[in-house]
Amino acid sequence: MIRKRLRCGENEVSIVRRTIVNHLRIGYLSGAGHVSDRAIFRFIRDAGEELYEIILHGQADRMATHFYGAATGKGQDRMVRRILDFRRKAAGRKGLKKLLNGNDIMNSLGLKEGPLIGKLLRHVEEEAALGRLKTREEALNCASKALDRMGKKVLN
Known about the structure:
With 156 residues, the chain is mainly alpha-helical. It has 9 helices and no strands. The protein folds into 2 domains: 2-92; 96-149. It has helices at residues 2-6, 10-22, 25-30, 37-47, 51-66, 71-92, 102-109, 115-129, 136-149. The protein starts with a helix and ends in a 7-residue tail after the last helix.
């Protein structure tokens, strides 16, 4: 509907959709009690390049709904700081550079092309962003262990 009425391209529609879908997540995270680094990473990953726009939209929504003095505001502000701190630290890690690609996983673990490869790559990327992986060998080992946990057999 947005695309036709405003004559937007698919990319613009995708940005608007991602912003709307994710802007309340900061509030949910701030109200959840203990929030793991993994949850923070997943929010950042899902937000993609629109992270700052999503944060601004979420803050504007909260302020429009509850104004500045709301109790939720302080918790949400702390969560925004935590998200931005995590992103800054993760961006400085070597782990955010791709340690593996799909061919590495397929060749090393004897797997065929398919959605499982993407799932393993996302898992390895998450562990690297959390600072748990630094080398290609650690990443391959992580993918192999994840495959075992999924109940799949390594063919090699």
